[in-house]
Design goal:
The protein is mostly beta strands. It has one domain (20-213): Lipoprotein localisation LolA/LolB/LppX (outer membrane lipoprotein receptor (LolB), chain A). It contains 3 helices and 12 strands. It has a 12-stranded mixed sheet with strand order 7-8-9-10-11-1-2-3-4-5-6-12. Strand 8 (145-152) and strand 9 (159-167) form a beta hairpin. The longest helix is centred in the N-terminal third of the chain and has 20 residues, at 18-37. The radius of gyration is 17 Å and the shape is globular. It is found in: Periplasm. InterPro entries: LolA/LolB/LppX, OM_lipoprot_carrier_LolA-like, OM_lipoprot_carrier_LolA_Pbac. Monomer. This is Outer-membrane lipoprotein carrier protein.
Length: 214
Amino acid sequence: MLNVRQVLVVPLVLAVGFGWSVVSLASEAMLRSFFADVDTLQADFTQRVTDESGMTLEFSSGVFSLSRPGRFRWDYKSDDPDLEQGMQIVSDGVAITFYEPDLATATIRSFDQAVQQVPTMALVQAGDRLDKLFTIVDYGLTDGLSWVALKPKDENAGYQELMIGFNAGKLNTIVLTDALGNETRLVLSKLQANRTLPTGTFKLDLSSDVDVVQ
């Protein structure tokens, strides 16, 4: 059973009228441009999980990296002063490793196995898969961000939708609403796009004392 961090990954009003529809079309264009033009990305992130009432269940932060197709990495900061590193989620495009240093445990799943369990994997896939996997709904400009929703076509996906917000064309916020109505909100900052990432970014070397579950 994947925990809330492993299932990562967004009250909006649908704009109507001619003027708003132009903005709305621009929002979907930002999404498609992100998939067409951005090959690598690295950013700091904050992650807040709230329940239906808005109560915060969890808050965390760290660094997110991606390289299309299929490679990504989430490095969480540790809440434990005795640990230098928090949870790490790393995909090399073939397998995804969920490493929890506090438990000295790593769970490894194939990329195909995890695709429905980690909605934000959509960010690292090729843009031509968007329309195959999702119904795209454009919400236009709300609260200063241009929003578009990705609603999974798979009825067993386990989440309602993935909302993606852009600020001046740049990826800014990702909001996942799960089947129970809980919301995971990721806010990105210090984005660096299309820069060469260090060798080994999408590899995770585990020590021999780590319990590996496959």
